[in-house]
Specification:
There is one protein chain. The protein is α/β, with parallel strands linked by helices and 204 residues long. It has one domain: Pyruvate-ferredoxin oxidoreductase, PFOR, domain III (Pyruvate-ferredoxin Oxidoreductase, domain 3, 3-Layer(aba) Sandwich). Helix content is 37%, strand content 22%. It has helices spanning 27-41, 88-93, 124-132, 138-150, 155-165, 171-192, and strands spanning 14-22, 45-52, 60-68, 80-85, 98-107, 120-122. A 6-stranded mixed sheet has the order 2-3-1-4-5-6. Strand 2 (45-52) and strand 3 form a beta hairpin. The longest helix is centred in the last third of the chain and has 22 residues, at 171-192.
Length: 204
């Protein structure tokens, strides 16, 4: 009898992730990749739901992924731990049920007024366009950043799920986009690290 794959570590027993933007930004696909990475490769319980407007492009688009150590009894977000917003409308619409300590990650160039001053603003679309040469992989750049910032999914699992989902012939392009997102997040964390100084003797 084969042993069950050991679950990858995650910040909490149940993690709620919402990926929001507009049609054409690939957020439903990003949700599928994240769910399959956590479920098939990290050995966790997952559930995904999605919604999108009638427009092929430009309408609202949202994917929600629940990641848990236990069976999931309700497959939709109630208290969001991670919000990715790739448009201003998404940031405005989907910020009402965030946990106080939630990660809010936005596209720096497309979201001018994040819902919180603690938001992480990174240039996903600009990097996809200028560094990768394909604006359409901004969703993959964002997934790489989510992986590095939050730890909700392993890089190994995310890469395996990504390569299983993308069209044949685009594997290297998408791996490059994933790495670019991880690099963006690492740069952000390195820049923020000096703010987390250890307490002085006077503070103890």
């Amino acid at each position: 009898m084969s042993r069950k794959k050991k679950a990858a570590p995650a910040p909490m027993a149940r993690t709620e992730v919402r990926l929001a933007g507009s049609g054409g930004q690939g957020l439903i696909l990003a949700g599928l990749i994240l769910a399959e990475a956590c479920g098939l490769y990290d050995g966790r319980e997952v559930a995904m739901s999605q919604s999108y407007g009638p427009e092929a492009r430009g309408g609202a688009s949202r994917a929600e992924v629940i990641i848990s150590d236990r069976p999931i009894d309700y497959p939709k977000c109630m208290n969001v731990d991670v919000l990715l917003a790739l448009t201003q409308q998404a940031a405005d619409t989907y910020c009402w049920d965030l946990k106080p300590e939630a990660w809010v990650i936005v596209d720096k160039d497309l979201v001018s007024h994040p819902p919180t001053s603690r938001a992480v603003a990174l240039p996903f679309t600009a990097v996809a366009r200028d560094k990768i040469g394909r604006p359409m992989v901004a969703n993959v750049v964002a997934l790489g950043a989510i992986c590095e910032l939050t730890g909700v999914v392993s890089r190994r699992g995310l890469e395996k799920a990504l390569l299983a989902r993308v069209p044949k012939g685009t594997e290297e392009l998408n791996k490059k986009a994933l790495s670019a997102g991880i690099k963006l997040a690492k740069g952000y964390l390195a820049k923020m690290a000096p703010a987390a100084t250890p307490p002085s003797m006077e503070d103890l």
